[in-house]
Amino acid sequence: MRPTTVAGIDVGGDRKGNHLVVLRGTEIVSHLGSATPEQMLERCRALEVAAVGIDAPCRWRTGAAGRLAEKALARQRIFSFATPARETAIASKSGFYGWMFNGERVYDAFGAHFPLFSGGEKINGRVCFETFPHAITCAFLGTDVASAKQKGPQRRAILEREGIATASLTSIDDVDAALCALAARYLLEGRVDTYGDEPGGFIVVPGL
Asked: Read out DSSP for 83-144?
């Protein structure tokens, strides 16, 4: 039986762009840099990818309370960028939220072929979902060990420990995309922790 094929996407701003890594078992069978959502979708469909982990918010904030997923992770001392309301991001002059809008475009492109994860234990058909490399690193190493200053070596070591050779991953963006693909494999195996709810969207992290 051929191993399941999964993918991960590191979403960037307009200058950095998006990075895609596709795993079949432990083998990296494809990766793209500075790719459009449509190019990544085409590659995933061609390679019969079953699940796609995306490093970007799947939902904007609604109301004053913030996203339940981000708050639940924060209680575990796993912190992320706070997702604003879409109107707040549009009004911002800083340009910071450009990558979140690029993430929105990725979800929009993939949604018809890879429906967004909606919770539950059983995956029926293709799926895409939100995850992020720092949370994945915390799942494997613990929050006391995971370090932004050591993210390159730490994240490569996680992949290598999982049997994934990292020599072809020439940037931290490629490494992060591969980590998101690894989370996709864990999701299909039913070995994940999920945070959030349907209105605010779920964040999926390997459960160890």
From this structure: P--HHHHHH-SS-TTHHHHHHHHHHHHHTTTSPBP-SSS---S-EEEE--HHHHHHHHH-TT
In whole angstroms, how large is the CA radius of gyration of the chain?
16
Kindly report the CATH number assigned to the domain that includes residue 55: 3.30.420
For 169-193, give one letter per residue: b (16+ CB within 10 A) or e: beeebbbbbbbbbbbbbbbeeeebb
Number of domains in the chain: 1
CB distance 140 to 87 below 8 Å: no
Q: For residue 12, what are the domain limits?
A: 5-199
Instruction: Let me know if residue 206 belongs to a domain.
Output: no
* 204, part of any domain: no
Q: What is the C-alpha separation between 165 and 45, in angstroms, rounded?
A: 23
**pLDDT at 113 (0 to 100):** 97
Indicate whether this model's pTM tops 0.85.
yes
Answer yes or no: is 147 within a domain: yes
- Whether the Cβ atoms of residue 19 and residue 9 lie closer than 8 Å to each other: yes
Furthest C-alpha separation in the chain: 52
**Stretch among 81-85, 121-125, 146-150, 189-193 having the lowest mean pLDDT:** 121-125
